[in-house]
Amino acid sequence: MNIAGRKTRSLLTSRLFGARPEQPGSPPGTLTQRGEGKVERPKLTIITYDEAAFEEREIALDQAAQYASVGRTLWLNVDGLGDVEVLRELGRIFEIHELILEDIVNTGQRPKVEEHDDCFFVVLKMIYGNRQRDDIEAEQVSLIVKKGVIISFQEREGDVFGMIRDRLRSAKGRVRKTGADYLAFALMDAIVDNYFVVMEQLGDQIEILESEVLEEPGTQTAGKLHALRTRTILLRRSIWPLREVVSGLMRAESKLVHKTTLAYMRDLYDHTIQVVETLETYRDMLSGMLDLYLSSVSNRMNEVMKVLTMIATLFIPLSFIAGVYGMNFQNMPELTWRWGYAGALALMAAVAATFLVFFKKKRWF
Amino acid sequence: MNIAGRKTRSLLTSRLFGARPEQPGSPPGTLTQRGEGKVERPKLTIITYDEAAFEEREIALDQAAQYASVGRTLWLNVDGLGDVEVLRELGRIFEIHELILEDIVNTGQRPKVEEHDDCFFVVLKMIYGNRQRDDIEAEQVSLIVKKGVIISFQEREGDVFGMIRDRLRSAKGRVRKTGADYLAFALMDAIVDNYFVVMEQLGDQIEILESEVLEEPGTQTAGKLHALRTRTILLRRSIWPLREVVSGLMRAESKLVHKTTLAYMRDLYDHTIQVVETLETYRDMLSGMLDLYLSSVSNRMNEVMKVLTMIATLFIPLSFIAGVYGMNFQNMPELTWRWGYAGALALMAAVAATFLVFFKKKRWF
Amino acid sequence: MNIAGRKTRSLLTSRLFGARPEQPGSPPGTLTQRGEGKVERPKLTIITYDEAAFEEREIALDQAAQYASVGRTLWLNVDGLGDVEVLRELGRIFEIHELILEDIVNTGQRPKVEEHDDCFFVVLKMIYGNRQRDDIEAEQVSLIVKKGVIISFQEREGDVFGMIRDRLRSAKGRVRKTGADYLAFALMDAIVDNYFVVMEQLGDQIEILESEVLEEPGTQTAGKLHALRTRTILLRRSIWPLREVVSGLMRAESKLVHKTTLAYMRDLYDHTIQVVETLETYRDMLSGMLDLYLSSVSNRMNEVMKVLTMIATLFIPLSFIAGVYGMNFQNMPELTWRWGYAGALALMAAVAATFLVFFKKKRWF
Amino acid sequence: MNIAGRKTRSLLTSRLFGARPEQPGSPPGTLTQRGEGKVERPKLTIITYDEAAFEEREIALDQAAQYASVGRTLWLNVDGLGDVEVLRELGRIFEIHELILEDIVNTGQRPKVEEHDDCFFVVLKMIYGNRQRDDIEAEQVSLIVKKGVIISFQEREGDVFGMIRDRLRSAKGRVRKTGADYLAFALMDAIVDNYFVVMEQLGDQIEILESEVLEEPGTQTAGKLHALRTRTILLRRSIWPLREVVSGLMRAESKLVHKTTLAYMRDLYDHTIQVVETLETYRDMLSGMLDLYLSSVSNRMNEVMKVLTMIATLFIPLSFIAGVYGMNFQNMPELTWRWGYAGALALMAAVAATFLVFFKKKRWF
Amino acid sequence: MNIAGRKTRSLLTSRLFGARPEQPGSPPGTLTQRGEGKVERPKLTIITYDEAAFEEREIALDQAAQYASVGRTLWLNVDGLGDVEVLRELGRIFEIHELILEDIVNTGQRPKVEEHDDCFFVVLKMIYGNRQRDDIEAEQVSLIVKKGVIISFQEREGDVFGMIRDRLRSAKGRVRKTGADYLAFALMDAIVDNYFVVMEQLGDQIEILESEVLEEPGTQTAGKLHALRTRTILLRRSIWPLREVVSGLMRAESKLVHKTTLAYMRDLYDHTIQVVETLETYRDMLSGMLDLYLSSVSNRMNEVMKVLTMIATLFIPLSFIAGVYGMNFQNMPELTWRWGYAGALALMAAVAATFLVFFKKKRWF
User: Fold this and answer.
1) Which of B290, D148, E58, E69 is the most buried (most CB within 10 A)?
2) Does residue D276 form part of some domain?
3) Chain C: nearest CA to D282, how far in angstroms?
4) Which residues in chain C touch residue D103, judged by CB atoms under 8 angstroms apart?
5) List of chain C residues whose C-beta atoms are within 8 Å of the C-beta of residue D225
């Protein structure tokens, strides 16, 4: 089990920690350029809107500053955290604390909310089922909520905010009429709503596995159970702290969050609780299924043993009788009897019948 | 286990989530029309009463408005949530917040109470045993408690409020003399009282299964245990949050709840605790029964093994002796002895007796 | 497992719920006459005392009123809850709230204390071992503590208050010098003291079972373990809430409880904690004993398997050798050898010795 | 399991409850003379000291009063609780509440601290390993801490306070310079320090057992594991409440405890936490060892099964072939072939080789 | 299991307790010289710095005093706790309370923070994987944080503070610009950062073991699982209390900690939570892996049993038939039949085929 000399990070480790600085003792707030070779430039997209106007475009880094003080609500979305320089520059433009920037880059954060003087910093996990690999993937989404400005950082392109963009574009619903705090809520709501999708997928898998356990448990079943349990354990790490995040936002008495948004936050909190409880229910069910599986393995072994025992118990005494009359003693009177053979067969039948009655009485078949 | 492409919702998923919007990111407070084809119109029933008068009738949607401001206590019951337009119209008439309407329609809510400025919103689960399918069914009941008005929303027709209607009609008891808050209590009390019925059914099933485990555990027993455990897990989700709901109502310092009703709320709270504790007791008992079942499976396997071992151990050496004297060597002096055959039989008897004594000493029979 | 149509309540159900109204939705505070046929009249006994005087007698219902306002401390004990009319009349005389009367009659209450304006209402479980049936029985005792008046309701005659009556009669100790609150404490103390007796009985049973598990575990042992665990689970329901009851009384800042009585309440609280912790210790020990039992079952199966394996492994190869020389080929040179038979026996001995050495090396015997 | 009629208390019962009054309902605060026959008189030892003087002597009961009001710090140690009269007299001299006296005599108390108007009453368990019986024994030590006076009650002679007496005699350290509160701390500290000794002994036993489980688990191992687990369960009862005791003393804002002593109390609290956590670690480790033991039992059974299966599977088909050619049909052409016998042997060898390859492929050996 | 007479401390004991005084009852705050023979002198290293200047050198004990009141921030690092005199002298120079000195020497402390009037005393565990022994080692690091002075005590040379020294030397980052409180944070941060390294190593080992459990579980696997679980249990003792330590420092309203450092403390707290949760996740995963392992052992036994059962069930009846026709009765008509032998073989084939169909139906192969 000696692991000295391993260089590549294992899957578990990276799933649990995400990216982290290698060197203990390095100063906090330092943004270290990760990876080798060419750096992938982040993609910056801005959406500005108020009740009347709406603008959406991809921008270059040097254009970001000019949007920082636009009068309308600004949503700056950053896809890709590979280029440290870009983050540092954004930090300078939007006055983001270096520790926040470090948390954004180190994608192994647990979900949390931090209230700063002029902003909220929210870390969430966006989770979606990867249908190709039949696995669940998590991506860290960091939100900075300032007065009139939302900045969201994602590890990769592709997110669950499509419908929000649609609502912004089409001016449907309340989202264009309200400020940055409602947009922040909407983003978090979309992430949590997507948890339900993941939860339903997981629930379907549990149900399929449950019928497998009940109907035809095989040697693979234990491995599948284990895989699902590991998945709930890892999901739990992402989802459990969410309750504190949302309740932290509800309790925060900040001017950044309007009172009307609080009602929506309470709704979001209800959803979060529901996801957390569903996960706990899954854990209970998987644990029950393991018990069921183990007792089913025992039962099958019992059945195998019974078959062996019945056959062996039935025939071993008969073989013994045959063996006796196969002995070559010169003086064996039975061998010369007229009904000797028939008698021996009858004896065997009687013994077999006795055992069958015994098994019947024991309810073995 | 890949579930991509499944379209129909599984039983587990729908039991856990009820109906939910499909699309993450859709705006909160949006009522989406569920299902295809023709919409089943909800059935609206009103009961108005004061100490002197009583009226009960089924109404059409457009009649609802005229009852909204009747002087007497009004109980409007809505059976069926399929038609979103009706709910929207009721929301408009009785000034119900859009988030509340959304919660009413999405029947996967956990039991909760929300205190709003002018009303309480209570979500409960009505649970009843379905005798045909030998299963337990849950139906979401949402109550809106306003000054002088109770609106109750149910998924289907048929409820546990029959006796309350009788008491209202016959002016028996305190229910006609008191206001909407007492009626709300009475409705919740009827729901919780029915939990006891479900609990007794569950307790009976547990008891029947317990004697099965003790007396003749079969291969089906583990599955039955699992089914009962799953049932308690799912019941727990409906019942556990109830404590918070009732204690939330007790602590609420609202003008909507009279002080005299609070004493009844405390009674209801006691009942709720009792249900919750009974469920926990069931869990403990089912877990103990699983242990008992597993040890019984082990014991039966032990017994099977013992039978096999005794028979095999007894006859294998005897067969060996018979085999020896069945060998065809020309020079086997025993074969020609006068008492050779009898001696061999005696030897066999001696060996068998030795083993029987050994088994007896080991207390194997 | 379909239980539809069952009419009689199972033991478990009645143990958990006691008597309860059948019909959900029936109004709270309604006293329904239970049972059919003739009603057993409750037995009313009063004891009045002050430091100087003492009176004890059985009374009829219509005499109760005249004692309600006697100057001395009054203890009215009611044995039997079958006649609802009597309770209603007592409720009228002593001004007892209808919800309290309902709780007294429905004997499935969990232990609790309720502080009302002019009285405390305490529900306790009196537990005693039934030596005939080797079981534990619980009886609900309800206490109403008013200024100068204690009313106690019991399900059946026979209680653990004998020594308190003796102390009252003989004017020994502090009980005659103090008021109703101290008498209430003394009654509760007698009930809790009796828990120790039950606990000791349970402890003795656990100890006897522990030596059975250690020395000669049989197939009945698992059932006995299960029975004891179920007993602790049910006891827990009666005893666990007791802590809240006593601490509730300690914290209550009521004029009904004198400061000097509070010191005794603290003592009672200590005893309650001790009972609760003992029960938890029993649970831990029973759970440990189950593990021990299961490992002992496994070990015995191991032993059985070893015997089978050794015998079979020893003789099957020997039988094979005998079988080979029992073949009837015409051309088998060994059969005609002079030492053929002896050689075959020697070969068998050598094979057997090899296996015995192998088993010895494996430490199988 | 009927225990009716048993008179003697079992070991478990007495270990859990210590001595307790037999009769429920007996008045609190009553000191009942326990045991029959002659009463063992307690041994009273006093130590009085201040910074300058020191006196230590055994005294008779009637001398106690004259020391009650000596100017110096007084430590009165009472060994033996058998004589109720002595305790009553001491209670009279030092004004000890009757409930405290009762707690001192009933040695089944859980560790606790009670703050009274003019004194602290502390109950602790002194635990020491009994090397003769390889068991752990507990003795109740009660401390009464008054202004300038410490009274300690022990069940038996012999304690862990030897070094404190030495420090008092030799005027070393701070103990002579400080008051009764520091002495109380020192006594408690000595008791807790001794827990570490017991913990180390337990740790050594766990470690020895761990290597037994890992290297050569036998049928006795499960019993030893169970014994150690029971020991931790019983120790937990004595040690767990200690945290509350010490933190209770720390929080008490009494003039009896000087501020300088509080720093030492905090130190003691740290030690207590350490003992509690060590015990929890032991529980976790023992639970892990049980899992290891069970899997080792399963593995050994697997190994036994494999040996049986290999031998049986190898030879049963061979015996069958030999059986076929041992049949006595007149018309069996193989029997007359020249190479018939050799061919049969070759066939057997081929079958055996096939099975060996099969086993090898299955990695059974 | 009697351990009387053992002199050397076991590994477990020393891992749990570290070094502790042997004699219960010895006065607190006493520094006892541990070990025999020559004492290893501690190595004292000082670093003094402000924004402009930096000095780093190893000093002798008598030089320490002159640095105590240098104007710049002073970091005195002590490697080795063997020489009690040196500690006593340092305690005198820097006015350290005797209880703190005792805690520094007794290396079995749990992580804690103590707030004193003029200093913080922090105890931490520095943990690093020992690659040679493939084990995890812990070393106690005690920090004393005074105004402008940090004193760190380590058991051995070698630590994780290398990068901090580099940052101090090179005046990089904020560490030279800030005071002693930030340095204290940096030291703690380096220790916690190193936990991540240990956690990743542990995670890698768990992952390697997981694939072993899934792919080829052997008899060693259970032992390895047990070793990893024990490691997590021991790590938990070191890491769990850390949360309280860091949150204690965050809440402390001391002038010693500047407000700007608090933000970094919050960052450290997040890291600590992350480590704690990762450890809990590991525990959950290891517990899941044990279940998987046990079910895999059961499955393998099942497979072995099936092979045995199939072979035995197939051949035992065939052998019986052969045995019948091997009997030596004179009157066995079949033996003389022309197709007798072929018929017997055909019968055998039919029986074998029947069983094969039976096994196929049971899905045994």
Assistant:
1) B290
2) yes
3) 15
4) 267, 270
5) 292
Does the beta-carbon distance from C2 to B131 stay under 8 Å?
yes
Is the same domain home to D271 and D310? no
D329 and D292 within one domain: no
| Per-residue pLDDT at C11 exceeds 80 | no
Q: Which two tokens stand for residue B153?
A: 């929303």
Contact E295 A298 (CB under 8 A): no
CB atoms within 10 A of CB C215: 9
C17 within a domain of the structure (yes/no): no
Residue ranges in chain A whose pLDDT is less than 50: 1-10, 21-22, 35-37
Q: Model confidence at B83, in pLDDT bands (50, 70, 90)?
A: confident
Subunits with 3+ C-beta pairs closer than 8 A to B: A, C
Record: contact A305-E301, CB cut-off 8 A: no
CA C217, CA C222: separation in Å to the nearest integer?
Answer: 8
- The CATH code of the domain that includes A61 is 3.30.460.20
DSSP B212-233: HHHH---HHHHHHHHHHHHHHH
SS3 content of chain C, % helix, strand, coil (to 5): 55, 15, 30
Round to whole Å and give the CA distance between A345 and A349. 6
Asked if the ipTM is above 0.95, the reply is no
Best mutation target, A2, A3, A283, A329, to test chain E (most E CBs within 10 A)? A3
Q: What is the pLDDT of residues D124-144, one digit of tens each?
A: 999 887 666 667 788 899 999
Q: Reduced to 3 states, what is the DSSP secondary structure of residue E87? A: helix
Would you call A3 and E270 a contact, using CB atoms and an 8 Å cutoff?
Answer: no
Neighbours of chain E (3+ CB pairs under 8 A): A, D
Q: Report CB contact under 8 Å: B226, A324.
A: no
Residue C33 lies in a domain: no
Domain boundary (D245, D266, D296) is at D296
pLDDT of residue C138: 85
- For every residue of A132-181, DSSP letters joined together read TTTEEEEEEEEEEEETTEEEEEESSS--S-HHHHHHHHHT-TTTTTS-HH
Q: A347 in helix, strand or coil?
A: helix
User: For each of chain D's 365 residues, which pLDDT tens digit applies?
Assistant: 333 333 344 455 556 656 554 466 677 766 665 544 455 788 999 999 988 888 899 998 888 888 877 778 999 999 988 888 888 899 999 999 888 998 898 888 889 998 888 889 999 999 887 666 667 788 899 999 998 899 999 988 888 898 889 888 887 777 888 888 899 999 999 999 889 888 888 888 999 999 999 888 888 888 899 999 988 988 888 888 988 899 888 887 777 888 888 888 888 998 899 899 999 999 999 999 999 998 888 888 888 888 888 888 888 899 888 888 888 888 888 888 888 888 889 999 999 999 899 888 888 77
Whole domain around residue C76: which residue ranges?
A: 39-296
Helix (H, G, I), strand (E, B) or coil at E280: helix
- Chain B positions touching A167 (Cβ under 8 A) are 27
Is E266 found in the same domain as E204? yes
Q: Looking at the domain assignment, is residue C261 inside a domain?
A: yes
User: pLDDT per residue over C120-162, tens digit each?
Assistant: 999 999 988 766 666 778 889 999 999 889 999 998 888 889 8
Q: Is A287 in the same domain as A327?
A: no
- Chain A residue numbers touching B301 (CB-CB < 8 A): 298, 301-302, 305
Looking at the structure of chain E, the number of domains it has is 2
Rounded to a whole number of angstroms, the distance from the CA of C73 to the nearest CA of chain B is 29
Q: Same domain for C292 and C347?
A: no
| Boundary (domain end) residue, out of B266, B296, B326 | B296
CATH number of the domain encompassing residue C324: 1.20.58.340
* Residue bearing the bigger pLDDT, A14 or E314: E314
- Best mutation site among A205, A207, A299 for testing chain B: the one with the most B CBs within 10 Å? A299
CA-to-CA distance for C146 and A272, rounded, in angstroms?
48
